[in-house]
Structure formats: structure tokens, C-alpha cells
Amino acid sequence: QVQLVESGGGLVQPGGSLRLSCAASGFNLDNYAIAWFRQAPGKEREGVSCMAGSGSSTKYVDSVNGRFTISRDNAKNTISLQMNNLRPEDTGVYYCALSRELGQRTYCRTVGHYFEYWGQGTQVTVSS
User: Fold this and answer.
1) Which of 41, 42, 29, 43 is nearest to 96 (CA)?
2) Taking a C-beta distance cutoff of 8 angstroms, is the pair 87, 40 a contact?
3) What is the mean pLDDT of each run of 10 residues along the chain (128 residues)?
4) Which among 4, 63, 82, 83 would be 20 to 30 A from 17, CA to CA?
5) Could you report how far apart the first and last alpha carbons of the chain are, in Å?
6) What is the pLDDT of residue 68?
7) What pLDDT, on the 0 to 100 scale, is given for residue 27?
8) Bridge partner list, 110
9) How many alpha carbons lie under 13 Å from residue 122 in its C-beta half-sphere?
10) Dihedral angle at the C-alpha atoms of 7, 5, 94, 46, nearest 10 degrees?
11) In angstroms, how far is CA 94 from the centroid of its own chain?
């Protein structure tokens, strides 16, 4: 059974940090590009970050560049997103996703339709 389960969300004050994790079961992560998306209330889903299947290329949306770091541990089948210096506008539900199509490429794209597998999401709230 293929499954993605996120954890690590919560309430944090502006300037704080959170580390999101995504446990992937039923997958060989070596074959997949990975990504994190988020959706704020009343807004469309936004691609936050992605990493190519080879791990050689990463991409971040401008608003998080320098504050967030995506990583993967293929041996543990785990994907992570380290989020530092959080801002209220980072609030939303965060989803991890996998793309087999992009898995064989040396680049990635934070475009939802490339990603076949999605987690259920974890809530991140940044507020004082």
C-alpha cells in the first residue's frame, strides 16, 4: 500500500521554526522527485519546494528562499522541510508529494499535475 503521512505541523510564533516530515511507505524514493505544497485559507495551492529524483537540483518559491530547506533520506523513505524564520503568511496546510514522471530528470517543478501521490496534509499556523 502506497502512502504518504506528514507530521510536524503546529502553532509557532513569527520568527520560529518547524520541521515537517513525510513518511513514504510502499515507494522506492530513489525513483521519485519530491515536493512540498501548501494551501492557505481562501487561496490556491502553491508549490513551496521540490527536489529532483537525483537530489542534484532543488527549487524554492521566492517567498521561502533562504528560509526553508527541503531534504530527503532515501534509505529511511523520509522527506523533510525545515522551515526557519516563519512568517504569518506561511500559514496553511502543507502537503508532501511524489512524482514518478519527474523522478528520472535532473530538474524538478513545483507544478501540481506532475505529482501523482499526495499526503493528507499537516497544518502550520504562524501567529503571535
Assistant:
1) 29
2) no
3) 94 98 92 96 96 88 97 94 98 97 90 95 98
4) 4
5) 40
6) 98
7) 84
8) none
9) 20
10) 160
11) 7
Handedness of CA 92, 97, 101, 104 (dihedral sign): positive
CA distance 13 to 21: 20
pLDDT given for residue 53 in this prediction: 86
49 CB burial (10 A radius; 0-12, 13-18, 19+):
buried
Residue in 63, 72, 76, 75 with CA at minimum distance from that of residue 97? 72
Which position has the grid cell 522527506? 79
Q: How many CB atoms lie within 10 A of CB 117?
A: 16
**Residues contacting 11, CB < 8 A, separation 6+:** 125, 126, 127
